[in-house]
Structures are given as structure tokens and as C-alpha cells.
Amino acid sequence: MWGVTAVLAAGAMIFAFEVPALFVRRSRRAWAAFLFLLTAGISILLCIAAGVAIPSPLEPLRMIFEPVGRAIRGE
Amino acid sequence: MEQERISAAQFKKMVFLYTIGTSVILVSNMLASDAANDAWFAAIVGTVAGLGLVGLYLALVRLVPGKTLVEICFVLLGKWLGLFCAFLLFVYSFVLTTLVMRNLGDFLTASLFPETPIYAIHLVYLLIVLIGVRYGLSNIARTMDIFYPFIFLLFILFALLLMPDVDLKQIQPILRSGAKPIVNAAYSYISFPYLEFILFLMIFSKIENARDGGKAFLNGTFLGGFVLLIITILCITVLGTEMTASNLYASYEMAKTIKIGDFIQRVEAIIAAIWFVTIFCKLLLCFYMTIQSFSQTFHLGEYRPFVFAMGVVLFAISIIVVPDSGYFISFDRYVWTVYALTCGFVIPLLLLVVGFIRRKRNVQESASGGLDNTPDY
């Protein structure tokens, strides 16, 4: 449980730290990008902390490029 | 926000430290596992090809001067295709950054800190990098100024200490098994690190003098390639081909063999220090490129508010990105090469062709007295 708490605390700290600058900017795009990055990162970290298995994000790349790569190597 | 400028000399140091980062330990093993005792030859081939690639990137910059890579995509391909292309390059830089991070963690847990959990190492390293990127590019450039002579001295010291153990017979017989293994090895070597240099175009427009910048780019690549060549030759001649090909961290293993008298020993700390510093530089530059391409691709303006949020994503992904080292090796061999070739060669070549066609059309239209409809981005 410590992991989950630490992750949430870190997320809250980053949020509090960056929000003043974002308020000054008044850009909806910037808010959307910031919130997207932070929620994505925090949710993956929560999954890791809670012990949920997540497939590697490299899998799609591997599926697209591996056949070509093997063909180029001639294997 | 004031314009951040760097000098051409600083750019050269950046390219040099970037080339050495991660490669200094991994390259000799990668080359030797394909080309055996001709690994040094593959290193030369790879460096020459790397210089050719830098020439391609410089041609692209000359076509659209003063723009970063993402801006070049938008200028040449228009709004939607440009967005797609810029997004691909952003994903490439992001994946690269996570893999560099993971390389660092894997190496340190395997060699120096066997009982430290990998996320602790990532966290400590990432925090320094985040602070560095928040301070901005001119600050990063000055950091490179400090580290550059330090790395050079350590490298020379390292090479000198190994001299007594060099056995040149290990290189023979030269070119025994023909060209194919060499091409195979050079192919891996080009994709890591040379094809990654496309991302330096994110920084290139910040150099005060673009002409000197081009020279500095080539110089840095050459110097970095030279150091990697020396490391490879040392690995083969000191450790022997089989040891080099079977140790993932061959140059670190090689440093363990240094023993002069009874008082100079265990100098693998030197190579570990070179690795610490250069990978810090590489990670710093990679992260800077990632965050810049992110904010420019989505037109977010100033990148600083996203640094920590991006850091969280990076930290999370770097933990789950490779389940085990076998996955990593096969990924490097079959997937990363093609992926890097797509992003580092096919995309810039495409941009270059589109740029030439557009310029030609513009010249023709203005010559025939037609409207000069150069789009205004």
C-alpha cells in the first residue's frame, strides 16, 4: 500500500507545483496535454504499485517491425 | 521566453558525449557477436555510414534553415501529414529515451548495485535529468562543456592502462568469413547510435552559426565513432573475440582485467564513471528532444510545465518496457534496427525529396512569371 500512497502523493505534488504556471498560460491545449501526461503516468505507476501485470508498450512496434527485421537479417 | 543559443563547439561536445553514451559499453559486444574478430572493420564501416547520415540531415537543414525537425515536418508536409510525421518522430524519441533509461538501470543492477531495485536507480537518475531539462538548453550545453575534457582524460587513461594486455594476434585472421557478417554488424551499429542523430535536428536550429554547426556535427560524430572504434579494438585484443561476444557489458568486463603490479587494480570504476557521465548526457539530450518534439508537435508553446508530467510517464514506462533481457536483445536485433531505419533514414529522405520538389516548383513558377505562392507558415 505504501507504493500506491507514494505514487498518489507524487502526482499531487507535481500537480500543485505546475498549476500556477498553467493558470498564467490560460491555454486549454496546455491543460489537456498536462493532465493527459500526468494521469497516464500516474495510472501506469498505480498498476505497477498494485502488482497488475501490464504488457510492454513495445509490443505494437514489435508486431509491425519484427517480420521485416527478420527478413532483412535473412533469418 | 528568451531565445536559448548554444555555440558550435558546445554542439560538437553534445554529439560526442551522445555518441559514446550507452554505446561505450554495449557496442563492442554487439559488433563482436556478428562480425567476430572483424568487429573493428564493422566499426569503421558504421562510422563512415554515420557520417553519410549526418550529411543527409545537414542537407535537410540547409533546405529549411532555422527550423527544428518537427517544424520542418510541418513546413514541408502541411498540417495533417506534417502532424502525422512529427508524431511518429515524437514516439521514436520517447521510445529511445525509455530504452536509454532502461539500459542504465539494467547495467547498474547487473554490475554495481545488484540488490538495489531498478526503480530506485531510475528515480534518482531521472530527477537530475528533469532538473537539468527544466533549466534549459544553454544550461545543458554548459554541462557538456564541463564533462567533455573529463571524459576525454578518463578515456585516455583507460586506454593507456590496457596497453600492456593488448595482443594483436587476436585480430587475425582478417576478413575470414567474408563481407556478410560485417554488413550485419555494421547494420546494428548504424541503428544504434547513428540513426538516432536525426533527433539532433531538434537542437540544431539553436546553434548561433549554422555553417560552423554543420562542421561541429560531423566532427562530433567522427570523434565519437573513433572512441568507439578504439574501445572495440581494445575489447577484441584484450578479451578475445569469444569473451567479447558473450559478455553483454564487454568493456566493463575488460576493465576488470587491468592489474598493474599490486596497487592499480579494479579500475572498472573508470569505465563505470565514463558510462555514468555519458549516459547522463545522453539521457539529458534525449529527454530534451522528447519534450521539445512533444510540445512542438501539439503546438503547446513553452515546454517547461510538461517536464515533470512527462518524467512520470517516462519513469512508469521505463519500468515495464522490457520484461527481461532476452526480450531486449531480440528487440534490439530485429525490431529496433528497422524502426530506427524508418525514422532516421526513410522519413528524412522523404522530407528531403518533398523539399526539393517544392523548391523546384517554386523556382519554375517565379521564372514563368506565375504567382509566387510560397505558403506562409
UniProtKB/TrEMBL annotation, chain A:
Gene source species: Paenibacillus methanolicus
Keywords carried by this UniProt record: Membrane, Transmembrane, Transmembrane helix
Keyword Transmembrane helix tagged: yes
Transmembrane segments: 6-24, 31-54
Lineage, highest ranks first: Bacteria, Bacillati, Bacillota, Bacilli, Bacillales
Name recorded for this polypeptide: Uncharacterized protein
Domain of life: Bacteria
Automatic annotation (TrEMBL), chain B:
UniProtKB keywords: Germination, Membrane, Transmembrane, Transmembrane helix, Transport
Gene3D superfamilies to which the protein is assigned, alphabetical: Amino acid/polyamine transporter I
Topological type in the membrane: Multi-pass membrane protein
Database matches in InterPro entries: Spore_GerAB (IPR004761)
Subcellular location: Membrane
Keyword Transmembrane listed: yes
Listed transmembrane segments: 15-33, 39-60, 72-96, 116-137, 146-166, 186-204, 216-239, 269-291, 303-322, 334-357
Pfam families linked: Spore_permease
Top-rank lineage group of the source organism: Bacteria
Primary localisation category: membrane
UniProt GO cellular component terms: membrane
Any one GO biological process: spore germination
KW DNA damage (keyword) present: no
Family: Belongs to the amino acid-polyamine-organocation (APC) superfamily. Spore germination protein (SGP) (TC 2.A.3.9) family.
Protein name as it appears in the record: Spore germination protein KB
Species per Swiss-Prot/TrEMBL record: Paenibacillus methanolicus
